[in-house]
Amino acid sequence: MHKTILPKFTDAVKTFRDVNGNSTLTADFMEAVEKYQTTLNSAIVHLRDYDHTYGTISDMQHRMLNRHNGRITERIQHLYMRIAVAIHLQDIASVLNTYELLSTRHITLDAFISAGTGTTGPMISTSYSIALFNSHIHDMYDAIARTVFAVRRGGTASIAAQKMPCSGRNVHCQHKDCNIGLWTLMKFLDGAIAFTRHHEDLRTDIVNIAVEAWHLDVRALIDFNNMHQHELADHKSLTTTICIPDIFMNRVDENEEWSMFCPSHVDDLFNLSGPYFDQAYRRHESGTTPCIKIQARELWHAILRSIILTGGPSIIFKDNVNGKSNFADTSPACHSDLRTGMIDPLAEEDELYPRNHTSIALPLFVTRDGLFDFEKLHEITKEAVYLLNKALDASMPQLLVRLDRNRDFRSIGVGIHGLADVFVAMRMPYESLEAAELNVQIAETMYHAALEGSWELAMIHGPYTNFPESPLANGILQFDFWDAKPMDRYDWPGLRDRIRATGVRNATLISIGPGSGGYLSSGFTDTTEPLPSNVLEGEIICPWLVEDLSILGIWDDDIRANIVSAKGSIQHIATVPANIKAIYRTAWEIDPKSTLKMALGRAPFVCNSQSISFHLDSPNIETLGDLLMRAWSSGLKSGLHSVHSRFPEHRASVSSYEDADDSDREMSFDDVVVSSNSP
User: What are the recorded GO MF terms, alphabetically (predicted)?
Assistant: First the structure.
């Protein structure tokens, strides 16, 4: 790239042209560039491009860097400067600060947002929430239009369908809206996204549809997952989420009946959680409300089987979320992003509000002495909060629908990636006590920094609108919901008092979830997951491992070939010492319960939620069910984002739907029930 692309940032921005030769960058962006062109050009440090691996450079060339007439026209450092200018415009000090954070890889943004930032097309926000309230054809078209609006601009969309009436044929519903149902919506939406992708370069996994476990059309959601398993694996557009209340999990555990309703008949259930939900639910099922009754384990096993087969749906535990939520003054939070890392209350009708999140590269805080720099992490986390708030403000004028809800909450998500790399660098096995302690210390540091940064912004701009009704206004912090005691590193009582007096700018701040590809530009592992393998793309062995084996004098071509043939494992190699094997144990060799323990350790300092994925060689209903039961009973808000399996032949087979008629398609739980004695 350096041989063919001019070094000046101002030269690179001139290449952003459409087919007619017109600039595709916004007028405000170009005005800022022209005013500060000398400063911007001199701030670029092109040598930092060499900090990236070949794989990350290739990924950035494919997904982030600008092209004109098929040729890449900007360098990596130009991309970082473009993002900084787009967010801050003529605030040159903030532009240069954000450039440094991105250029040094301390902070990464979503890949597709990075690609379009500063242009007249994609927006700065990462994901958007949409609620669908009924199945009128006009409202369905409107929801799909808002969804396409979001994804065409580089974002993702999550649709809350909890209030959407089910298909009328299920319970002989006489409600005027009971005529389309969730199945038709999903087919309709899948087709709209496929059509859009045909004309534009869109990511996969761009739209999520969520319903609650009592919704009668939850069966259609499961059915859709199963039927599209092969298509979804190669060209996935839709993902799904089921929001599960405590009463359902209790009935699974006790092997009791479960009642399923059309939202048209139970319009109070989605506005309730906890004991209020339980009371209303029991009243509906014992009264005259039309419903279908099945064994709770039948639905539970259908969900588990679909997860094993397709990797989804994701699972959210409704009462765990709302029992520890800062949205106590609103309707229950059960509307997540695609990866269950951010969970918010339902959007209002006709509303499209953005969620902004970024990810911090943890390995960059490991010092040369093998220590972790918590002070630097605290500083960078606050910078991330400032950046996301500025990005949120910058995205507002680009939206064409009302944003009252988002202006109230201003939810942002500061996440992390590279935790497994940190453990390797500090010589800690993933399952060790030292790693567990560091995991908690990192989460606590980030939560304190994020709260402090948001409080500082509230001192300048005021708190978010609904702050006075929130638990934070009463001095209740996230770890108070968990009865957890923070360490003495920070002045929590002082911060609590300052927040109670002044407020914070954002309702939620910390969100742990996959980074939509942005983490790839850093070269580190995704989010908090263990090492996926010791073999990287292109059969390159993990550099840390190569260094350790070289020091031991056992690195050679034979051991390299041995590692590659074992799909990245070193556990079978006799010459490798036990302590090295422990450090480089992969996600496939680590007990998934350890992943849950890590998530539980962080949980008191994650004020939104965290995405949890399991790596299971041979997933089955008993194993997966046990993991999710543990997640729920431990109080985790998100039970599951996805299940990864290396061996598809171990996945359960499902009935062929190829010749079935879509109009008569309905889930048969008889096909998915396994031992009724297993929760």
Answer: ATP binding; ribonucleoside-diphosphate reductase activity, thioredoxin disulfide as acceptor
